[in-house]
Amino acid sequence: MAESEDPSLRIVLERLETTCREISRCVISSCPGPHAIVLVLQLGRYTEEEQKTVALIKAVFGKPAMKHMVILFTRKEELEGQSLSDFIADADVNLKSIVQECGNRCCAFSNSSQTSEAEKEGQVQELVELIEKMVQCNKGAYFSDAIYKDTEERLKQREEILRKIYIDQLSEEIKLVKEDEHKSEAEKEEKIKLLKIKCDEKIKNIREEAEKNIFADVLNRILKMISKIWHFFW
User: Fold this and answer.
1) DSSP character string of the chain
2) Multiple choice CATH, 34-138, 3.90.930.60, 3.40.50.2000, 3.40.50.300, 3.20.20.370
3) Which PANTHER family match (predicted)?
């Protein structure tokens, strides 16, 4: 995104790029797609910033993502005895709309230090049950769209490339060890054993390495996608 001399616009662009980086990390780490997306909101006014974030999610992933979304409200203690459903019923039309788009899947957590451990466990259990019910309704399917499918394909390709590099490197190193006339057979066997352990460790972490390799590509794709629509949100 091009830099601007307007300080307020520059801040917006920097914030947008930060958001894109977070979206990119989420896409990569949740491939081939998430079963659940948890949208965290504070109880109270549904802020303009939060509305823009939700609009951005829908713009990037499409409305089908809402079928996999659960809303988690924080600061439950501020309900002060009022039920969550009553709070939503009295909320503004924008908040009601997003709750309806999420199939009315929502719950609230208390952030208060006065919240007992039993209540905290109950809150977590309520969220888990809400997610499990949603997954059942979606017949166990995870959310996926073009960017997820493309990213997963890139990850698999990169994994195969890295695996071949590591195996070829191991073969070459083993060959050099065997040709070393200054080492005994026992020393060679020990060296080869260590090389294989090192290679196995690399292959074990191959997914993480592949994710690092394609992060820039995913980020650039999301930035390019959002650069065409960002002015609608900020």
Assistant:
1) ----S-HHHHHHHHHHHHHHHHHHHHHHHTTT--S-EEEEEESS---HHHHHHHHHHHHHH-GGGGGGEEEEEE-GGGGTT--HHHHHHTS-HHHHHHHHHTTT-EEE----TT--HHHHHHHHHHHHHHHHHHHHHTTTPPP--HHHHHHHHHHHHHHHHHHHHHHHHHHHHHHHHHH-TTS-HHHHHHHHHHHHHHHHHHHHTHHHHHHHHHHHHHHHHHHHHHHTTGGGT-
2) 3.40.50.300
3) GTPASE IMAP FAMILY MEMBER 7, GTPASE, IMAP FAMILY MEMBER-RELATED
